[in-house]
Amino acid sequence: MTPTRRQFVQSAAAGAVLAAPLMLSAQQTRPQKFKTALIGSGWWGKNILREAIASKRCEITSLCDVDGRILEQAQDQVNDLTGSSPKIFKDFRELLEKDKPDIAIIATPDHWHALQSIAALKAGAHVYVEKPTGHTINESRAVLKTARETGKVVQVGLHRRVGPHYVSARKFFLDGNVGELGMVRCFVDSGGGKETPADNSEVPEEMDWDLWCGPGPLRPFNGKLHPGGWRNFLDYANGQLGDWGVHWLDQVQWFTGVKYPKRIFSSAGRPIRGTPINDGKRMTSDAPDHQAVIYDFEQFTCTWEHRQFGGSAAEKHRLGVYFYGTKGILHVGWQDGWTFYPTAGNKTVHEDSQIQQPDGHNIKLLWADFLDAIDTNRRPAADIEFGHRATATALLGMLSWKAGRSVTWDAEKEQIVNDAEANAMLSRAYRKPWEYPSL
């Protein structure tokens, strides 16, 4: 559901109050205001934009979205908050050329993240981009390459790297409380059942559907795709693994210091949701309704699993990461904080979550870190290199499933070993006239 103007204004005001102590010293010593643009002006993009406004260091000069309804609503909401009306664009290329922002926030569907990040970086902007950093692995590599070539700051939306209860859980882990690590399990469980197809429909008059599809295939317009449902369509995203999986696999890499797995194998399917439908008249999603991945790291085994059926009544936790060690099991979650279950008779250790509303995450802290990284010319907490590794690790699971076999990963070359067919899947063909980014 799209937030009303009143809801957006109220939540932004609350965010401004909470953000003030964080940004006060920066305001006193670095009064610069950044021309800031939002590319992808829906619900999540406006959550990020709210923190940019609350920082008092960002002038919102332009907004972009291919859906004119969303775009006009976002413009009205920013006007209510700031007293100014940012310029609006449907095409991000025109925005970058005419507005020349200092900062570009990219909160579009996944298949656009890489091209828009690269274009913004080349236009001279620092970038805050949502995860994943690419729809395919080589797209993500190209963003990392461009960031390093331009010297701009790229913050990926991995807000768990700065969230207080995640930070304290990591310290608890690094202090040796879990003991010797042998296995890690990342998971998301949710409800659901058989999926009913929805009829295709006319493209809304206010929408540029061809530009929405962009480098991906040009599908008919369908309400299952827009707004929001695209995450479970493989033409434009990578299902639960490409969404939630990036967050939790990043936690594994952050806690343990590992960079990449050596071998990956995945199995998945749609026994509950049913065979995908896309017959020109109606469609369903096509991402797996469940998936299991084995990531074989040098030091430990990591698994990913998700189900979009059955719920989580039989689980202590609905999602998160379990670190299994010789001294006990550490679960790091979201709204349920973190909990350590010792192997001996010691008491369970628990810390509640520390998240910010209304988004339920820690975007405010990540945005403050982003601005400080720009000010001090350092790499941010969720730097593009970390975002790329987490994205690539998730997408290797998808690649193994699509290939129907395990793959061996050369972390130094970022290539699959002795498998030309699988290596070809590190990229994908683009719809003309879009061109795949070069490495």
What's the structural blueprint in terms of helices and strands?
Elements: H1 5-29, E1 34-39, H2 43-54, E2 58-64, H3 68-82, E3 87-89, H4 92-99, E4 103-106, H5 113-122, E5 126-129, H6 137-150, E6 154-156, H7 164-174, E7 181-189, E8 198-199, H8 209-213, H9 239-256, E9 263-269, E10 282-283, E11 290-296, E12 301-307, E13 319-325, E14 328-332, E15 338-342, E16 349-351, H10 363-376, H11 384-403, E17 407-410, E18 415-416, H12 420-424
Parallel strand pairs: 1-2, 1-4, 2-3, 4-5, 5-6, 7-12
Antiparallel strand pairs: 7-13, 8-10, 9-11, 9-17, 11-12, 13-14, 14-15, 15-16, 17-18
Q: Quick one: overall form? A: globular
Output mean pLDDT.
93
Instruction: Please give the alpha-carbon distance between the first and last residues.
Output: 39 Å
What is the count of structural domains? 2
Structural account:
The chain has 439 residues and is α/β, with parallel strands linked by helices. It has 2 domains: 177 residues, Rossmann fold (3-Layer(aba) Sandwich), CATH 3.40.50.720; 230 residues, 2-Layer Sandwich (Dihydrodipicolinate Reductase, domain 2). The chain has a 10-stranded mixed sheet. A 6-stranded parallel sheet has the order 3-2-1-4-5-6, with helices on both faces. A hairpin with a 5-residue loop joins strand 14 and strand 15. Helix 1 runs parallel beside helix 2 and helix 1 packs parallel to helix 10. The protein starts with a helix and ends in a 15-residue tail after the last helix. 47% of the residues are buried.
